[in-house]
Amino acid sequence: MTAVRTVLGDIDPGALGVCDAHDHLFIAVPALAGQELDDPAAARDELAAFGELGGAALVQWTPFGLGRMAAELPAVSRASGVHVVAATGLHQAVHYDPALRARLDALGEHGLAALFVSELTEGLIDGDDPAGPRGRARAGMIKVAGMFHGLDTRTRRVMAAAAEAHHATGAPIGIHHETGTAAMDVLTLLHEELGVPAASILLGHLNRFPDPGLHRELAASGAFLAFDGPSRAHHATDWRLLTCLEELAAAGHTGRLLLGGDTTSASGRAATGGGPGLPYLLRVLRPRITAALGAEAARAVFVDNPARAFAVDWR
């Protein structure tokens, strides 16, 4: 059965509703030490504020080993009434404690694929130990990461593991592109070399590399293009976000667009006095997108496209 796999169970894609297609409720990375998203109460408040504006779903792209607090996700989703899709997968090596990185590297390509598959089909591991306790909530996507303008050996191994997990389950693969770069390298590797259908590839952070010609080429492949904004850490290109979306829509690629907030720090949460936070996506960006592209295109970006991007005929 084709379904979107949430932390509370599988749902019909048509029930996903208005979706923040790339964000974080919980995450901890060395680059943002002291700004960890690790407060369940704040996550509930932030998600509830998103829900009050009509938000119905959020996809958390936090992968294995980065403080995703898997055991908290079902309660946060249930309390807010907002669907949550969780991720398995791995980020760049630099974001991991050396001891954990060594344990993960020791698994090898097929061992990593087995880890991803188990989290997609059996349940998310509740901590940072690959052999740790497993909860009932399952991942609904795989998150991996490229490098700045290229792919190193480890990145290729992790992406090969993600492709293997995709072929075993059907799960979509979302990619962190460092400042939006190397998207074509990733698409070539996953789609052309590893056989992942383009429609199962979600190319993230493309607003950070606002190249209209490249965006059109990527969209023409059939992959989904995920734009985030605004971002406290990458605000230099935020002003180009709407222009990027307008240019892709004008080229006939409205059906390939996804939008997310990508909140990665405690100071970026609206519920704790910072911001812009989850509500900004619907409070500010949705009206602007509706005005610029029309109501039909806005519905595609926030409702129809996420329902297709995260829908899987689970194997």
CATH architect. name: Alpha-Beta Barrel
- The percent range for strand residues is 5-15%
Strand order of the largest sheet: 6-7-8-9-10-11
Structural class from helices and strands? alpha/beta
Largest sheet: 6 strands, parallel
| Helicity level | 25-40%
**Spans of 5+ residues with little confidence (pLDDT < 50)?**
none
Please compute the radius of gyration using only Cα atoms. 18 Å
**Strand elements, count:** 12
Distance between the ends = 9 Å
Coarse shape: globular
Number of domains: 1
| Average pLDDT figure | 95
The top level CATH class name? Alpha Beta
Determine the number of helices (DSSP H or I, runs of at least 4 residues): 9
